[in-house]
Amino acid sequence: RFLESLGYRVFMTYEKMRENFTFKGVQVSLDEMPYGRFTELEGQSPQQIQEVAGLLGLDWVRRINTSYFEMFQQLKKKLGLEFDDLSFDAFRDLAVSPEDLGVRPGDVIEDTKE
């Protein structure tokens, strides 16, 4: 109500569940979104984050630089969703694939050797 009294308005509800860990100086967040599960890494440098990603078995090439909100907007357009809330309730009966989000799972490291 305070923000609304200043002229702000609610344009969407955004829900996620998160567990935080620290590994080798990098914050590792395990996020469960209404449309999937993600690992977020935050550290002092891209090199440090890339090293930890490798140690965790995450494919650096498949990293996602898009926000959860942007993925939601893309998903709405692709699937023709008419709701605006990024909530678990809104997604209750909806199955979303990585392809629907325009991403590939990062916990599968491809063998690039020929």
Q: Taking strands numbered 1, 2, ... along the chain, how are they ordered across the largest sheet?
A: 1-2-3
* Secondary structure: helix percent: 25-40%
Q: How large is the radius of gyration?
A: 17 Å
Strand content: 15-25%
| H/E topology pattern | HEEEHHH
Principal-axis shape: globular
Task: Report mean pLDDT, rounded to a whole number.
Answer: 91
Main pleated-sheet profile: 3 strands, antiparallel
Structural class by SSE content: alpha+beta
Structure explained in plain terms:
By secondary structure, this protein is α+β, with helices and mostly antiparallel strands. 26% of the residues lie in helices and 19% in strands. It has 4 helices and 3 strands; from the N terminus they run H-E-E-E-H-H-H. The protein has helices at residues 2-5, 46-55, 68-79, 98-101, and strands at 17-23, 26-33, 36-42. Strands 1-2-3 form a 3-stranded antiparallel sheet. A hairpin with a 2-residue loop joins strand 2 (26-33) and strand 3. The model has no long low-confidence stretch (mean pLDDT 91).
Question: How would you concisely characterize the structure shown here?
Answer:
By secondary structure, this protein is α+β, with helices and mostly antiparallel strands.
Topology:
Blueprint: H1 2-5, E1 17-23, E2 26-33, E3 36-42, H2 46-55, H3 68-79, H4 98-101
Antiparallel strand pairs: 1-2, 2-3
What features would you highlight for this structure?
single chain, 114 residues, alpha+beta, three-stranded antiparallel sheet, 4 helices
